[in-house]
Task: structure prediction
Amino acid sequence: EDQVTQSPEALRLQEGESSSLNCSYTVSGLRGLFWYRQDPGKGPEFLFTLYSAGEEKEKERLKATLTKKESFLHITAPKPEDSATYLCAVQSTQGGSEKLVFGKGTKLTVNP
Amino acid sequence: NAGVMQNPRHLVRRRGQEARLRCSPMKGHSHVYWYRQLPEEGLKFMVYLQKENIIDESGMPKERFSAEFPKEGPSILRIQQVVRGDSAAYFCASSQTGTDSPLHFGNGTRLTVT
Result:
């Protein structure tokens, strides 16, 4: 069964203090790994898709990387507006399924 | 450029009543997905539909739950005879092509069963 584990569950940073969020996964065959951001009371907002080990993608202060077992979301010099829950999800190649399997998320708080 | 629209945003039902949740996908998107989010839990896949077809309903309970995406109109997730355990946030997402295209989520319907 496909599984996604995110750590830490919660992370508090000071503004400007860089850090990384981890997403460990087990999947029969990786079709894609996705990162989303979710604000309270809102739906997840798409950030990145990674397809193969070694791939990296960047957007403003965020950079996502992928290995064969895990993905990292690096946050450089975060600002308070980066506070949100960050979700990781995988899509499997098995059975032609389109579904995403999500982790429980990392709740990030950035203090000014 | 409207995003995925879900209504109602909040829905309160008594045990035994029916709940109907609506989802209009983004313009040009013909693939619709429903996910459920319980408190302190991750998003769980329920069902994947294309126009007039259910493609994958492996995550949907066999009883009391049904989904449709008619040729005209929004996708509907229907829960009959609701129980307290159905209380959750239900999110709809849509994509353009299904395969390899990112999902765009609505802001969800929060169902409370009293």
Remarks:
- The first strand of chain A starts at residue 3 and ends at 7.
- Chain A touches chain B through 23 residues (CB under 8 Å).
- Chain A has a mean pLDDT of 94.
